Amino acid sequence: MKYHPNEIEARWQKYWAQNQTFAAENHSDKPKYYVLDMFPYPSGAGLHVGHPLGYIASDIYARFKRHQGFNVLHPQGYDSFGLPAEQYAIQTGQHPEKTTRENIARYREQLDKIGFSFDWDREVRTSSPDYYKWTQWIFIQLFNSWYNKTTNKAESICTLIEHFQKDGNANVNAVSDDNIDTFSADDWNGFSKSQQEKILLQYRLTYLAETEVNWCPGLGTVLANDEIVNGVSERGGFPVIRKKMTQWSMRISAYAQRLLDGLKDIDWTQSLKDAQENWIGKSTGALVTFKVLDSEGAQSNVEHFLAGNDHSGYEINVFTTRPDTIFGVTFLTLAPENELVAKITTEEWKQSVEQYVDATSKRSERERMADVKTISGVFTGAYAEHPFTKEPIPVWVGDYVLAGYGTGAVMAVPCGDERDYAFANFMQGKNGMQPIKNIFADVDISKEAFSSKDNVTIANSDFLDGLNYKEATQKAIAELEKLELGQGKTNYRLRDAVFSRQRYWGEPFPVYYVDGLPQMIDAQHLPIVLPEVEKYLPTEDGQPPLGNSKEWAWSTAESKVVANDLIDHKTVFPLELNTMPGWAGSSWYWLRYMDPHNKEAFVSKEDEQYWQNVDLYIGGSEHATGHLLYSRFWNKFLYDRGFIHQQEPFKKLINQGMILGTSAFAHRIEGTNKFVSKGKIDGRRTQPIHADVSFVNASDELDVEAFRNWREDFKEAEFVLEDNGKFVVTREVEKMSKSKYNVVNPDDICEEYGADTLRLYEMFLGPLEQYKPWNTAGITGVFGFLKKLWKLYFDDKGLVVTANPASKDALKTLHKTIKKVTEDIEGFSFNTSVSQFMIAVNELTAMNCHERSVLEPLAVLISPYAPHIAEELWEKLGHQDSISKAPFPKFNPEYLVESSKEYPVSFNGKMRFTMELPLDLTAAQIEEIVMKDERTIKQLEGRTPNKVIIVPGKIINLVG
């Protein structure tokens, strides 16, 4: 009876689907365990062998926990809104919903072939109206909430309105816009409804504001920082510029400290926690005010300010972590986007500044942060007054300052900061650049800045002289507060998240506008479904694609979407034209899996209380900041408002590494259409061209005819072959990608070797968290292992399993494997488990082991890794239920306790034979047995040894 994986796997996949084998119960006497994968975006290319890596790992763990008696929730769905489907729709004219549906069908087919134990009855799709109804509902809750700094949580906007009605806003301790005018209760009660709404927008957790955004003209939309790579869009490679737009934003910054604090309570790798901490970027210091001196004086001469002229009224607020160095300030630098730039720049410098600001807008913030070598900036012609010395400080614009960090302005202390030092030296001698001041005692700054906080003694700093970093910091803040020109402050790099996208394929906002102010559609009328449009591009006048819809207005009388030509601004109003970003639907999806068919709530309180949160989350490290921060933010908000009971969504998180592709390169001689084989390059200048790996065999030999027919420009190419008539390519390990033609389709592997082989091989490649190259040649060894496993149970005639008692060696092998595999799964060391399986099967084969007492638990052991073959073995052993319901074998240490020892018996130090003896024998008893052994008698040939050396449990040596 031979092993036929395709027949076995198809049968068991059908069985699992028909019997809903992996359906989780929402309430059970079993302990719960929630295993979650970061769900995929279903692209048209389908899965390659790198994609299932994390899914296989999570599936092994989910199956393991079921064997341990847990009620396991292991769901799957699709992150199905986003740019790729829309770009494809623009190119082909097909509706994104159609291509997304087709892509999902393809993904589902591939996922099923690999044998995952997903509870498919809970599938979610973010682009389904039944799902995004609740994304819209959560948006409405955010709009109707504010962050109370006193209670340190989000509260209903109604509590803020009550406060305004009774006491005004003077004593409100809220996260809000800056520079809100103070008003009394009488003022508030006297405001018009629209005035009140404008004020509330300054406090709401989601709000409209003019914001600096990453605008991508090529895609016609705003992009998040993590959607930009090297200054261009990750999708399509289009240039990105900085631009001010009115956008929906979310006050994630309100949760900055709680997002930091929450990291202490979750089991994530330190590198993940570090990434989040760096992104949130907490720092302590002072907010310092520099008053801008009047521009008229700035145009004439610096001495003019010393005469005590009036200030212009503008102030430059600077956040600094080093207030101790305030006497070392020689210039201020504004971010190019800072609105003060246009207000304080003098006529003389206006053109230069405008050109610089325009040039900087074409560089992303990430690019500017990463580029520490390029120094650029321009003087504004303006000066500001030092808060202590009253000296005029020149104001510059520099792209190393970011608008979103701090206040978008820095006080430059070149003697204490490397970037300020480099900037000052680069601009030395230019108008508006003063000499560097040294405010550190006994420190040489002639070659570099002194940025350390240790061993600092402040000098040339008036009342700070002689103080160390800590003393000087406290003293400087105290004096600034006396002058009302500064205060101690904690700052965060984390900025409010822009929440608008100028795209079609995304969640519509449940928002209409009355007199330009946003109004929420009542939750009972959700979902607001995407309308049909003829074109997915922006409108001719630059409006988002939803502007192409002829039916995108809201009737308050009928409570439904109606035709645009009915807009009268009395009962029919325009709807929001932007859509939500891709991260909207992925910021709460794990909650929907708990209760996916609920039409009354996004999740029932009972189901959420039962599942609580995700016990194990597996996904890529590229989500370390974006998705994981946004989802933690939404989770904490929902917790604050009492909708859920857990502050953190994901208890344990593991980043799987990446399976890399082994690319193939055919080398073309530069300037020609002649390709030269690897061994014939001989120093010639060649250009490596990616060749589809399907044209290359295991010996790196290229199918030249297939390569010729692959592309039109290769049809007439010449090929310089090796002496054996073959063309050999070079190889390089790269990211597996369709564009590099190094993709391996898992369907092909499943077809040839079976899904169990694929699962085992992906785990066998190396530790889960590491990057590792794919090598199809190595998969045959794993396939051979499964065939060898099969032969323990079957021969050509059928089942050979017996009820005979197992040997102690066989039981030892079994329990050694139970111990190792249990520890490996619990430690997520799946690759070493596969090695142990191979060792065990080799040992049992050598023992000719066919005993049920060993082979039955062995099938359960391997079932999380190779579930199809395990199910088949289990059934053939006579079981009616799925093997997934069988308890995991328990390790018994008694089977690993050695009762005997195989001694090497040596004569004059040379081992002649071995002898197995009980470990509890004394040296005298061992000697008696050895001396009577026929082999000893033969070796001695009648002689009596001078000495018999015996160490029980170790050695036997006869000397002389």
From TrEMBL:
Domain called Leucyl-tRNA synthetase editing: residue spans: 277-480
Pfam families per the UniProt record, alphabetical: Anticodon_1 (PF08264), tRNA-synt_1 (PF00133), tRNA-synt_1_2 (PF13603), tRNA-synt_1g (PF09334)
Domain of life: Bacteria
'KMSKS' region, short sequence motif: residues: 735-739
Catalytic reaction equation(s): tRNA(Leu) + L-leucine + ATP = L-leucyl-tRNA(Leu) + AMP + diphosphate
Location (main, coarse): cytoplasm
A GO biological-process term: leucyl-tRNA aminoacylation
Keyword Cell membrane: no
Residues that bind ATP: K738
Domain Methionyl/Valyl/Leucyl/Isoleucyl-tRNA synthetase anticodon-binding: 808-922
Record-given protein name: Leucine--tRNA ligase
Keyword annotations: Aminoacyl-tRNA synthetase, ATP-binding, Cytoplasm, Ligase, Nucleotide-binding, Protein biosynthesis
Enzyme class, first EC level, given as a word: ligase
Gene Ontology MF annotations: aminoacyl-tRNA deacylase activity; ATP binding; leucine-tRNA ligase activity
HAMAP family per record: Leu_tRNA_synth_B
Record family assignment: Belongs to the class-I aminoacyl-tRNA synthetase family.
EC number(s) per entry: 6.1.1.4
Positions of the Aminoacyl-tRNA synthetase class Ia domain: 727-761
Stretches assigned to the Methionyl/Leucyl tRNA synthetase domain: 38-167
Subcellular location: Cytoplasm
Lineage: Bacteria, Pseudomonadati, Bacteroidota, Flavobacteriia, Flavobacteriales
Gene name of the record: leuS
A GO term from the CC aspect: cytosol
